[in-house]
Amino acid sequence: MKFIFEVRVKEGHTAEEYADAWVRASELIQQAPGARGTALHRKIGDPNTLIAIASWESKAQRDAMEGQHNPEIAGIIRSAAPFVDITPIGEFEDPEWVVMPPDRKEG
């Protein structure tokens, strides 16, 4: 499954500031069972709008990770909170099948 959220960087701050916190938190979150990777993307034409996509084997595994309080992760998220607004877009099932051109991997 995919968990997707939008990040809007507040005036006076940069996407790079958020990306630093995001990488540190992601490194810890990705140690959880079922974590399959994350990606952070900058919106074309709007460098202060980002989209984050976290991949998980299942919603249950993501929910289990969320249910485990990790003070280090919480601290990193709190440190970034003053300079971004985060809007969850939603949780999406992986498609039943994906057709990709030869020699391409799913992104």
Automatic annotation (TrEMBL):
Pfam families, sorted: ABM (PF03992)
- Stretches assigned to the ABM domain: 4-61
Out of the domains of life, which is the source? Bacteria
Q: What is this protein called?
A: ABM domain-containing protein
Q: What species was this sequence derived from?
A: Marinobacter zhanjiangensis
Task: List the top taxonomic levels of the source.
Answer: Bacteria, Pseudomonadati, Pseudomonadota, Gammaproteobacteria, Pseudomonadales
